[in-house]
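Our working data are protein records whose layout never changes between entries. The record below serves as our worked example for the rest of this section:
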Amino acid sequence: MEHTTPADHPTVRIVLPLEIVDAIIDELHDDSDSLKHCSLVSRQFVSRSHKHLFSFIEFVFPNKPMRAHHPAQRMLEIFRNNPGLARNVNHLHLTNYFEGFWHEHAQEYCRVADEVLPSLFKYLNVLQKFSIDGAWGLTNSRDLTDKRHLNDISSHLTYALFQMFRSTDVADITIENITNFPLGHIASTCPHLKRLSISHIDSFYPLDDAVIYGTYLTLEDNVHEKLALSTPGRLMTLQIDDRSEHAVETLYAYTMRPHSHLTLSHVREVTLHGHKLSMREVAATVITDAASSLEEFTWDHNYHVVFADFQYEPINFGKTTRLRILRFAFVHDARFEPVQLFWVSEVLTATRGHNNLEEIILVLNVDLDDVHDDQWGECAEWAPSFDSLLMSAGFGHLRRVSFYVDFTEVDHEGPLPMDEYVAINERLEQRLPRLQEAGLLTVQWIFNENSQRSLEFIPHILVNEREGLDQGKGLLQGVHIPSEF
């Protein structure tokens, strides 16, 4: 920082202690405009400002990308001129990605190999988190999109991506809407991986890795497998959906190879999105393999299809020993026996006596009229057995059983019938008297204008609830989730 004095006096340069510089910049870490201004004020601020300015980079690709313009081109030029800046990049996110361009005259998307991203990847060697979300709705049909392989990425780009993974200690990877992605090769490239989230990467028109990538990846895998690790890396968190189960099945097979650099045997958290049996079968394999480490299991059955029928197919939790949190979201049709709730009871019975269960969360998507008329009569057999089960020996760590009754409404315009919501909640509480008397039961209503994925909002609800309790407020009777949330 410089201070200019009159001409007959020398310029005085004030040097701030490094601790003060760090404190100032850290305070402004999420204010990019202020960080840019600081880097222009004094050289002392430059290095620290760049650390925050370049830490998180997201490229959002247009719905109709132009051939002559690539969103990452400018950043590539910056790194070419100053490679040191790339060492600040910890998080890289590619959103709405399509490898190609929109042909205006032909009115269609054309695939062309990306030359910018492979060049950019070469500069990134301290990456911790990577995500890529492919463009959705490139045609009016998912089948047609897959048939034309519009959400595939080229062998050139895929090879560059895995080379980047190999040269970094990337710990968190999310891949969505990128079809025919060779997920299995992560087992030989990402020994530091702790969290993996996969969605929509299976294709209606699957291609064998060898067809897409030739020997690109296989040769690299062979080289790196010879550099076997004494202890493979341990994936801790796995999130999958029912449109990626085949890719995850392949990944699991690769992790079982003798020289794999990654294992799923120590997974602590498993999250499932969707209803298909094939996804459950893959998840069951992972859960069995990670039985001694699994702590959290989350399943949103109606994540993609709101009213998908529940199929009673067990997942064996009988060998698990450390389960701490269970979260479920189902459609609950008051006109029929709640088979999904009997399924939950079966899971709990299998874990009795060898678990650390502290919290069970159940989101039930219901129709107001049906549940109002039947007054939870369909649960007359299930509720007492569930109530007795959780109050029996074998669940000594349990501190909370939460039901969120998610009301499906057609009319969003009128006032919410909250009195009815509360009355319905109270009737469910009356079906579970032992849990209620023990102070373990909470029942709240949710009105979710988004219709789906209410389970994703629960962490936000719990945070707000804890803040309210800290301020002396009571538990909320319910939560309204607006569509823009």
User: Anything to note?
Assistant: The first strand starts at residue 2 and ends at 3. The CA atoms of residues 364 and 405 lie 5 Å apart. The mean pLDDT is 84. Residues 1-53 form one domain.
